[in-house]
C-alpha cells in the first residue's frame, strides 16, 4: 500500500489519521476526499467511472479506476491493508451492498458508508458496516432549522441533541448571563461567544451579551428553537 501513498507527504496534519480509501467519487465522496486532503490526510480514490477518476486525479494522492464489487480488485489495490474506508456509492444499491460486503470480508476495521434510504442503511448495518451516513437526510434536517432565520448554523450531533449558532435572544441579552438559570428555564447550554471574526471564547457567567454577538448553544432541536424565540 505504501507505493500508492508515496506521492504526497505533508509536514503538518490537522487531521492526524493514516491514509483513507474513498470508494465512489460522486459529489459526496469527492467532497469528503478533498476535505481530507486539505487537512493533510492521504487519500486513495476508487471509482468505476474513468471520467470521475480523471476529474479528481489532480488533487488526490492516487486515483484508480476499478470495480469495487470485485473483492480481488480491492485486494490487489491493497485496500485490505488500510484501517479506514469510506464507501460513497449511494444511488447504485447493488454496487453499494456488494462493495460493503467485500470490505467486511476483507476485515476493514473502520467502514463508513453512505446510504440513500432507511432500507439501504438497514442493509448496510446488517452486513456489518460500522458507520452509516445519511447526508441528504442530515442536510435536510439542518436546512429545516435554518429556514426560520434565527439560526446562523445548526448541526445535529446525536439523537435529539444539536448545536446551533445564533444571535442572543432577548432573554439572554437583557442582563448578565446566568448559565445555570438559562439551563433551568430553557434546557439549553450556552457554550461560547463570538465577539468578532474568529474570536470564539468560552461563555462565562455574568457575561453581558449584545445583539451583535453570536453564541453557540447546545440542546434538543425543540428547546433550541424555543430558546431562540425567548
UniProtKB/TrEMBL annotation:
Pfam families on file: TrkA_N
Transmembrane annotation, as ranges: none
Species the sequence originates in: Corynebacterium minutissimum
Domain of life: Bacteria
Xref: Gene3D superfamilies: NAD(P)-binding Rossmann-like Domain
Domain RCK N-terminal positions: 17-133
Coiled-coil regions, chain positions: none
GO terms classed as biological process: potassium ion transport
Official protein name in the record: K+ uptake system
